[in-house]
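== Folding the chain ==

***
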Amino acid sequence: MSDITRASASAVSYLLSGFPCVVVLGARQIGKTTLLRQILPNASYYDLERLHDWERFHQDPEFALRRAPEPVVVDEAQRLPEIFPALRVLIDSERRKNGRFLLSGSSSPELMRKVTESLAGRVAIFELSGFSLQESWGVAPSGFCAAVEENRPEALLELKSRLTVEALLESCLDGSYPEPVVRRQDRRFVSLWMENYFRTYIERDVRSLFPDLRLPTYRRFISMLGHASGQIINASEFARSLDVSQPTVKSYLNIAEGTFLWRNLPSFNRNIQRRVSKMPKGHLRDTGLLNHLAGIFTTDALLGNPLAGRIWEAFLIEEIIKGFQNRLGTARFYYYRTHNGAEIDLIVETASGVVPIDIKLGTAVTARSVRALSEFVQEGHSRYGIVINNADRAGWVKEGIVQVPAGCL
């Protein structure tokens, strides 16, 4: 994996040039250690999951940091919360010096609180996702996110597909964790890796962070959540099925989101005259794990599964979000659904405006299939809408609606 340069490396390097400290957050096994070593290969490196390094910093974090030649890389910093106040002291001693500390953290909602309490105004936070299509297949960067962020629909028309539908389906099946992507040809390995990853997530990460949690119940909750990906989450239904309270379900959802397993999309309801749903909606971030939980192990099985449309939707939403993250875009992401059933999969809000995006697994576009997009545009919420599908080329499908092949992302 180390020979694959992460698309996010330039973004993190840019942040280091402007901040004394950068914290890279992300799920376990997402490639944080590799990224840190790629960006600062000659830095003083410490991994707080190694007992020797943890003991070195546990005794006196400030003393250990002062003795380490800069720049300093600290992996899995959530293992020692005391390191953050020590970092603040060192940063304030040379406030104008940037690029001194690069940290990583995973599976710890508490980490964000420690960072914001101790290092507010001194740190940049970057969230690392799994491999993008660019990284998975070694293709050129896409101009999709730049066109959306700059509100230039004409630039979307110039995009060309970089990948076949078969390659896209394979990526959707395997997900974006680096290890399964690199070894995607070994189907048995991918399946075993996903099972062990999920078991480790439950039995190590969640157990250590929330020791009082009923782990068998939480495991069932995650499996149910996988089948509910792409749907509005009804806490009362989950509570009845799990025999727990609604507040417990909401706390489970917060844990799944805080440990980077679940992506929550809030409802877009700004300046909307219609009644819209305000209940939470989201999806499991990695479709490889989602497919594993659903018992889907081939692309043929994926296409024949009733969940195929929602899995594909989650896959492409994550790809779009990765694109904005890797270019340090300032977009916010929502979903949109009215009480009469009109729904848009993704709303992207940038400084240039609001862009609604619908995601389809097929190739055909009908007036009915883009009705919600058209109404959203006609009501003045956006200049144009986008439908992403598996068509051959980009182009206008009707006034105000542009079609973009998924291979262009």
User: Anything to note?
Assistant: The chain has two domains: 9-127, 133-408.
